[in-house]
Design a protein that fits this description.
This protein is an alpha/beta fold and 521 residues long. 55% of the residues lie in helices and 11% in strands. The protein is built from 22 helices and ten strands. It has helices spanning 11-19, 37-47, 63-72, 88-96, 109-129, 131-150, 161-166, 193-201, 223-234, 265-277, 306-321, 325-341, 346-367, 378-386, 391-409, 414-428, 435-441, 446-457, 461-479, 484-490, 496-507, 511-520; strands at 2-7, 28-34, 51-55, 78-83, 101-104, 174-181, 207-212, 215-221, 251-255, 288-290. The radius of gyration is 36 Å and the shape is elongated.
Length: 521
């Protein structure tokens, strides 16, 4: 809708011009009116109307003076001059300043309508050839980006090297990042990761931000942008969680594989989409999920079958009866891995674990019917598991319930529980084990268990795990079969620099120095 400003020193005429024709039907809206030339000039510069309908004789400043002054200030709008008499000299001067129509009073509706229609056609044509062209370019760029990223249409065949450079898509490496709110109940993210990248990269031409199916998608372009992203990740790839209230504390990031051609960008996008769908399998407090965590799609997925359900039921029921906490914890760990490898969606896994709990409850209730074990009602369990966002929450719930069963049927000692925990660490050090995730498996609060561990073992839980990992890494270093970064991954360090730091702390030299010295001996 274009804007029209009506200028005349007589209020009656201004009212008449507002209602003489259907401005809205003609594509205009009356944005204001003025009663003298000075006021008209002020409104022209403040409202930027597309059309000014103005009387030639005005108080304070004549109509042609207004036209001249506005043109000198580069006003591009159109003018229709009205006058109480026809004077070729005035009309000629008006045309010199780009006035297209000179109408004499009284204004005829048909004549005014015809003039306004011609001006609208001219404005439409002007937009198509200038502003609209830029808008179309922007829309075309967004469409091309969307097609490249999602792979729905492939790389447009008409793109040549000049087009790629114009779209700022010429790069040696590309990677897709999808971000959303860490708290899934809150919906969209309260912070924009795209804005954080702008600050980090000091420019926005190193990445693009689009929305696809209500997902915020980032396309990183070039080695610099990808390296900056990994630098950003390194702050959140260790055991320390993001600071409460910080931007990263509100964000969850999933990133696909890096690729080197425009044709492969969609592969990175598909990785990130699958990772977002598998947030259910994240560990507690996990804010990032990378392509290395994807299941091996070439291997056949493990089916959630009734036989496995019966097997887990029998094992866990047996361990509960013998108060074997170590085997309960190990079986829950195997259950978690089995569910992860199944590649089933969260709804199927929730049904499986709910059925598992109800079967074990039925078995134990029959065996210990005189103890009055305080099992939760079936409806409560179904509702509780159904509302959980993560698998680790369900596993922790099962561990808590099984500890309740063993506590009701027997009384474990502190030393036996710690022996089981040390055994568990010795056989699971290569995984991302934390006190917060182990404690529920053994029925303890993490803070309380940490104090017991430190007092009994003589060092903190994390320090003990580091010692176990470093001892195993020393064995692997002496075999000379693996590179240092491969050994770091095998003993549970996802970041090789972090492994170097820990190794030097406990051994007093770097892994390479240790290998060289001992291999020479």
């Amino acid at each position: 809708m274009y804007k029209v400003l009506i200028v005349d020193d007589e209020a009656l005429i201004r009212d008449g011009l507002k209602y003489i024709m259907d401005w809205e039907a003609a594509g205009f809206s009356v944005c204001g009116e003025a009663s003298n030339g000075e006021e008209a000039l002020r409104l022209i510069f403040s409202m930027h109307p597309d059309l000014v309908l103005m009387d030639i004789r005005m108080p304070k400043m004549q109509g042609l003076e207004v036209v001249k002054a506005s043109r000198q200030q580069d006003f591009k709008g159109r003018f229709i001059i009205t006058s109480g008499y026809s004077d070729f000299k005035y009309a000629q001067e008006a045309m010199r300043y780009g006035v297209e129509f000179y109408l004499t009073k009284p204004i005829e509706e048909e004549e005014l309508t015809a003039s306004v229609n011609k001006i609208k056609l001219s404005l439409d044509s002007e937009i198509r050839s200038s502003d609209n062209l830029e808008l179309l370019k922007k829309k075309a760029k967004n469409v091309i980006l969307h097609e490249l990223i999602t792979g729905k249409e492939g790389v447009p065949a008409h793109l040549d090297s000049a087009d790629i450079a114009d779209l700022e898509l010429d790069a040696d490496i590309y990677q897709i990042v999808i971000y959303e709110n860490f708290n899934r109940e809150l919906g969209s993210s309260s912070y924009s990761f795209a804005e954080l990248l702008k600050v980090s990269n000091r420019a926005d031409h190193t990445f693009n931000h689009i929305e696809d199916d209500r997902k915020d998608v980032i396309l990183l372009k070039g080695t610099y942008a990808v390296n900056r992203f990994y630098d950003f990740l390194s702050h959140y790839d260790k055991a320390t969680p993001p600071q409460k209230g910080s931007p990263m504390d509100t964000l969850f990031l999933a990133y696909g594989r890096p690729v080197h051609t425009l044709h492969d960008i969609h592969l990175s996008y598909e990785d990130a989409c699958m990772l977002i769908s598998r947030r259910f399998f994240c560990t507690q407090g996990q804010h990032t999920l990378g392509y290395s965590a994807l299941p091996d799609m070439e291997q056949p997925a493990t089916a959630l079958n009734p036989e496995k359900l019966s097997e887990f039921t029998d094992y866990l029921s047996g361990y509960l009866q013998t108060f074997n906490r170590k085997n309960v914890a190990e079986t829950l760990s195997r259950l978690e891995q089995y569910l992860y490898d199944s590649q089933e969606d969260s709804s199927e896994i929730k049904l499986f674990t709910t059925d598992l709990y109800l079967r074990i409850k039925e078995k134990i209730s029959l065996l210990y019917n005189t103890l009055g074990i305080p099992f939760l009602p079936n409806s409560t369990v179904i509702d509780f598991i159904g509302k959980k966002n993560y698998l680790y929450e369900i596993i922790a719930f099962l561990a808590e319930q099984f500890e309740m069963v063993m506590s009701a049927a027997g009384s474990p000692t502190r030393s036996s529980v710690l022996d089981d925990i040390l055994y568990y660490i010795d056989h699971n050090y290569q995984n991302n084990i934390k006190l917060e995730t182990i404690a529920p498996l053994f029925g303890y609060n993490s803070a309380y268990l940490g104090k017991i561990f430190n007092k009994t073992v003589g060092e903190s839980f994390n320090s003990y795990v580091d010692h176990i990992r470093i001892e195993h890494s020393k064995t692997l270093l002496l075999q000379n079969n693996y590179k240092v970064y491969e050994i770091a991954e095998r003993v549970g360090y996802r970041n090789v620099d972090y492994f170097h730091k820990k190794f030097r702390k406990y051994v007093g030299e770097s892994p390479a120095e240790f290998r060289k010295k001992n291999m020479e001996q």
